Structure formats: structure tokens, C-alpha cells
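WARN retry 2 of 3 for item q-0093 after timeout on previous attempt; input resubmitted unchanged.
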Amino acid sequence: MPVYRDEAVVLRTHKLGEADRIVTLLTRQHGKVRAVAKGVRRTGSKFGSRLEPFMVADLQLYEGRSLDVVTQAESLGSYGALITQDYSAYTAANAMVEAADKLTEAEGSLQQYLLLVGALRSLSRHEHGASLTLDSYLLRALALAGWAPSFQDCARCGKVGEHTAVVVQLGGVVCDECAPPGTPRIAGSTVALLGALLAGDWTFAKASSDRDRGQASGIIAAYTQWHLERGLRSLPHVSRETTAQ
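OK item q-0093 returned
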């Protein structure tokens, strides 16, 4: 059977039999892959903790009929242990890998892979608040998937301006003429924060207020669930910071 090597992020795992485990991977070159790690649950397994969620590894696999098989695993990023020590980071990471699982298919995307690896690395190092990191990741992952929101020009007619009406079904902020009756309004500072999270402007994002972060998180959650249809089961469990970080 063909053997191949690739880098991968472990998205989730499931027990198989008494000692094996099925791992769902987002790989650098082969998209999303489901594979069996044989004997991984035995004490002294050669894989150790390298095939746990949030870990990044260099893998050797061979192709099977329905599931590939992991034959070698070398750690590239031991993010799992650091993330699971912090509840906010852990809940954010769970939402990230669930989103990556839903947004990627067998053909994969190098950009989605690199974005997820960077977000998990940032969470493990506590570079930014976990909630901010998650919100930025979700916006950028959706943009890579073809659902880039607009937080500057009107998402419907393209009118330039500072718009404060948000309609997630239309793709972001809309002008007064395009806003349906009863459309909620948000502060201009919240719109600016949404734009900063999409662009990765961490200086601006980290200086934002708790109020703006709360509004932005709610809009991002609604936008994510709209495009993913059934939404993310882990998102309601995310621990949101109550003080600016």
C-alpha cells in the first residue's frame, strides 16, 4: 500500500477496540485525513502523547481502504499539554478544531492548516486573550473558506462609510438603506474591533473594551453558525474573558 509523510494537526480522536484510536487529522498537504493509530492506548505506546488533540506532528502513514494507518509520529508542536492547563485556552481550542473539521475536506487547504497551527501555538503561549484568539481565528478561517465578512463597506451594495447596522445573513455591516427594519446597531468601536480581528491587528484588539469584545464575540458566533448551518457545539462552552487582556 502507498506510504506517505505529512505534517498534521490532531483535530479529534475516538477509541477503537481495546488499544487503538481513530484520529482525525488536518494535514499540510493531504487535507483532512482519518487514520488508525494502533496500540496508542497501551502503556508504553511508541506514539506517546503525540496523537492527542491540538498536537502537531510529522507523520508517516500508509493508505488503507477506508482509514489510513499511522506508522510513525514525531512531535512538531506540543501544544496540547499547555492548552489543557488553561480552561479558557482549552475551550477556545476545542471550538477552533471543530471549526477546522467542518471547514475542510479531503482536498484540504494549506492556508487553513497554517492558520490553525498558528492559532493553537498562540493559545499555548498565551500571546493574546483566548477569546480574542478564537474570534480572530473564526473570522479568518471563514474568510479563507470564501465567506469573508465586510466590516467597512456595505456588505449588500458596497456603499463606503462607517456603518453600524449588522446583518450576518447579508455578510456583515450594511448601510441604512440596505438595513432591514429592526436591524440591531452596534458601536463604531465594536465594528472597528471586528475589522481588527479579521486583519490580525492585535495592538488594536488588545486595547479594546470588554463591552466591545462581548458584542464582537456575539456577532462572530452568529456569523459562524449561519455559515456552518448547524453551528459549533463547543462554542457555547467557550470561556470568555471578563477583563481586557
